[in-house]
Amino acid sequence: MSKFRKKDKGELPAISTASLPDIVFMLLFFFMVATVMRDSTLMIENQLPSADQVEKLKKDRTIFIYAGKPSEQYKQFGKEPRIQYNDAFITVEDVQSSIYQGISEMNEELQSKVVVALKVDKNTNAGIVSDIKQELRKANALKVMYIANTKIEE
Amino acid sequence: MAKRAAPEVNAGSMADIAFLLLIFFLVTTTIEKDKGLLRSLPPIDDTEYEPPIIKQKNLFTVLINRNNQLLVEDEEMPLKDLRQAAIDFLDNGGGTNPAGQSCDYCKGERDESSSDHPDKAIISMKHDRETTYEKYMEVQNELVAAYNYLREREAERLYRKYYPEADKVFTAMLEEKEKNQFSKDEVLNERIETIKNLFPMKLSEAEPDKN
């Protein structure tokens, strides 16, 4: 028995964890700087298609429109692909007014350079996208960006 | 009174608090990574006019059916061949542009039955309402890639001397323009325009049939 107890004699002092908060704070600041607040909750499935000829999106002049099947939590809205703007589902007819609303909330000098970013689930049909595009043409918001995941070029 | 050493403050919970904040930020924020294909839609034109007559040989038709199959120039084609087919079509240079100049920078086969000039060559794309968005994007991507490839090639030929280190010359030029967006660089803008005019992006989309 005493054989084992011997080891305890030269007890090590407790490890100082004083620098742990510093490390965590560093991580925290990194995340605060590198990320942005999520502005809307997605009510749809949103798996983006992939492409390799992508350009960067300028966030300040962009209006986001989402489309896809309602996700698991929102399945009371049916299985057909729906369009989402901000936090609510909208119909195709509402796209125009949503765009106008989005533009009016924007910085004045950027209003003429508005880009509409379409985040569409890759498994939806392309028909809903052309419906949206038709509405965008009516609203005279002619620049669209199909958001995609970057595929690594072979 | 004798000065007593200040007792050490227990900072053990500080880490917990910081972790809590960190987790809060992890959950509520996203890292910006949005990228995509930028395209312009045609404006709605109410004026009635006769659409210009486009010779069939200057038109490169891409159809996607509801089963995601590709029909290119009336022949079925796998997606992987589309990019090269589009490049061959655009780069053909079989005739002259509206001003009567022949395409002296084209490296294509100068096939009489394919496009006359990059200026006249139009890619027309049509899809079904039931086509999946994924397929639609893949096709768009290939077509844009064809234009980008040719523009990159011309930029390489014309402006390599200004960008000896760049990996891709045209991309480097666009990036430089992006950087100097507040101080307009006329020379650079002109060069970019030149490249764009050599291979103007004439990619039209027909509306899918209602059914």
Number of helices of chain B: 5
- Alpha plus pi helix count of chain A: 4
Could you list the spans of chain A in which at least 5 consecutive residues all have pLDDT below 50?
none
Oligomer: heterodimer
Count of strand segments of chain A = 8
Order of strands across the biggest sheet of chain A? 2-8-7-4-5-6
**How many E-type strands of chain B?**
7
Shape assignment of chain B: elongated
Class inferred from helices and paired strands of chain B? alpha/beta
Biggest sheet strand line-up of chain B: 5-4-3-6-7
Distance between the termini of chain B: 95 Å
Radius of gyration of chain B: 27 Å
Sheet having the most strands of chain B: 5 strands, mixed
Percent of residues in helices of chain A comes to 25-40%
Helix proportion of chain B: 25-40%
Sequence of secondary-structure elements of chain A: HHEEEEEEHEHE
Largest sheet of chain A: 6 strands, mixed
Unreliable residue runs of chain B? none
Features:
heterodimer, A: about 150 residues, six-stranded mixed beta sheet, elongated, B: alpha/beta, five-stranded mixed beta sheet, 7 strands, about 40% helix
Structure description:
The complex is a heterodimer of chains A (154) and B (211). With 154 residues, chain A is α/β, with parallel strands linked by helices. In chain A, 28% of the residues lie in helices and 23% in strands. Chain A has 4 helices and 8 strands. Chain A has helices at 2-5, 19-34, 95-104, 126-138; strands at 35-37, 50-51, 55-56, 62-68, 82-85, 88-90, 115-120, 143-150. In chain A, strands 2-8-7-4-5-6 form a 6-stranded mixed beta sheet, with helices on one face. The longest helix of chain A is centred in the first third of the chain and has 16 residues, at 19-34. Chain A starts with a helix and ends with a strand. The model of chain A has no long low-confidence stretch (mean pLDDT 81). With 211 residues, chain B is an alpha/beta fold. Chain B is 38% helix and 14% strand. Chain B has a 5-stranded mixed beta sheet with strand order 5-4-3-6-7, covered by helices on one side. In chain B, helix 2 packs across helix 3 and helix 3 packs across helix 5. The radius of gyration of chain B is 27 Å and the shape is elongated. The model of chain B has no long low-confidence stretch (mean pLDDT 81). At the A-B interface, helix 2, strand 1, strand 2, strand 3 and strand 7 of A face helix 1, strand 1, strand 2 and helix 3 of B.
